[in-house]
């Protein structure tokens, strides 16, 4: 990774996953119960083609079959001890590989989010699985939302062939809207002109599957996806890009930034325009 991209990766990480790694930085020991409950990171395995940047890879029969098999495998992750263990504790044990106190180097790597592939809580978790054949140079991966209810786990794929120039560019958050629990998957592009894209999902009470929660007015109708240019500065929460969930509650309004030569906001050599999206009771417009 080039130095400029590495710096951007650090900025993305700080913006997207601050709350996760603030929690993780307080974990200094791989606890024996968490280590005992630890599961190895799942793997996606299928035969690769010659070009890992060709989007046709995403539609290959071998890949679709492998994704189906992986979804079925994740649905068997019902062990109570694994769900009861804290995600940060599991991630710490995954990094260390054995029980005991993290070394200074391990604590730093953990705080930086190295090797983190598991997010969430005791009921809903996000698992990131590297894609062996698609965008391998740009952290190509797939995201699966796991919903634990009773003695079953329901699995939904929420990221398909996701990739980014930034390391550790995915984070997870929860919020309530009209008494409904909604999951936010936040991502960042990296690169010289980085952007942020958030996706929103709600658990269908009939099927227990995560479905897109269409909260935003789009060009082709309501959508569960919203994007913005990333800011390199440190704006207050009221003007930060895509600061939609605040203290587990959806904000009445939030900011979106777009690159605009006539924009009035200068940010790291770019000119940006700011748009405020407001909740009208049904959608953000």
In short:
The protein is an alpha+beta fold and 285 residues long.
Structure description:
The chain has 285 residues and is α+β, with helices and mostly antiparallel strands. The chain has a domain at 3-17 and 40-76 and 113-225. It is 22% helix and 32% strand. The chain contains seven helices and 16 strands. The strands form five sheets. Strands 7, 8, 9, 10 and 11 form a five-stranded antiparallel beta sheet that branches. Strands 3-4-5-6 form a four-stranded antiparallel beta sheet. The protein has a three-stranded antiparallel beta sheet with strand order 14-16-15, with no helix packed on it. The model is unreliable at 1-23 (pLDDT under 50).
Fold topology:
Elements lengths: L2 H14 L1 H7 L4 E2 L1 H6 L23 H14 L5 H5 L2 H10 L3 E2 L2 H8 L6 E3 L3 E7 L10 E9 L2 E11 L7 E8 L2 E9 L6 E9 L6 E3 L12 E5 L15 E2 L2 E2 L2 E7 L5 E3 L2 E9 L7
Antiparallel strand pairs: 1-2, 3-4, 4-5, 5-6, 7-8, 8-9, 9-10, 9-11, 12-13, 14-16, 15-16
Average of per-residue pLDDT values: 90
Helix content: 10-25%
Count the beta strands. Answer: 16
Structural class: alpha+beta
Round the Cα radius of gyration to an integer and report it. 19 Å
Shape: globular
Q: What is the number of helices?
A: 7
Q: Characterize the biggest β-sheet.
A: 5 strands, antiparallel
Order of helices and strands: HHEHHHHEHEEEEEEEEEEEEEE
Unreliable stretches covering 5 or more consecutive residues: 1-23
* Distance N to C terminus: 38 Å
> What percentage of the residues does DSSP assign to strands (E)?
25-35%
């Amino acid at each position: 990774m080039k130095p400029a991209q590495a710096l951007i990766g650090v900025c993305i990480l700080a913006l997207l996953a601050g709350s996760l790694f603030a929690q993780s930085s307080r974990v200094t020991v791989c606890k024996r119960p968490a280590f005992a409950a630890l599961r190895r990171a799942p793997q996606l395995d299928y035969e690769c083609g010659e070009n890992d940047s060709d989007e046709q890879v995403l539609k290959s029969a071998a890949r679709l079959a492998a994704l189906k098999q992986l979804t079925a495998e994740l649905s068997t992750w019902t062990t109570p001890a694994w769900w009861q263990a804290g995600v940060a504790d599991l991630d710490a044990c995954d990094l260390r590989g054995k029980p005991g106190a993290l070394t200074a180097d391990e604590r730093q790597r953990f705080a930086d989010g190295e090797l983190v592939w598991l997010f969430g809580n005791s009921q809903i978790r996000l698992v990131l699985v590297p894609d062996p054949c698609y965008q391998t140079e740009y952290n190509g991966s797939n995201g699966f939302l796991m919903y634990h209810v009773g003695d079953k786990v329901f699995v939904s794929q929420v990221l398909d062939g996701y990739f980014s120039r930034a390391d550790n560019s995915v984070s997870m958050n929860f919020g309530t809207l009209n008494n409904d629990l909604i999951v936010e998957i936040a991502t960042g592009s990296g690169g010289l002109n980085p952007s942020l894209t958030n996706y929103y999902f709600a658990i269908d009470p009939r099927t227990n599957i995560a479905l897109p929660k269409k909260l935003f007015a789009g060009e082709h109708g309501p959508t569960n996806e919203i994007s913005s240019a990333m800011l390199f500065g440190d704006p207050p929460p009221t003007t930060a890009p895509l600061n939609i969930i605040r203290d587990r509650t959806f904000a009445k309004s939030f900011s979106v930034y777009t690159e605009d030569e006539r924009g009035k906001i200068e940010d790291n050599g770019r000119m940006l325009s700011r748009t405020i999206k407001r909740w009208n009771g049904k959608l953000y417009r």
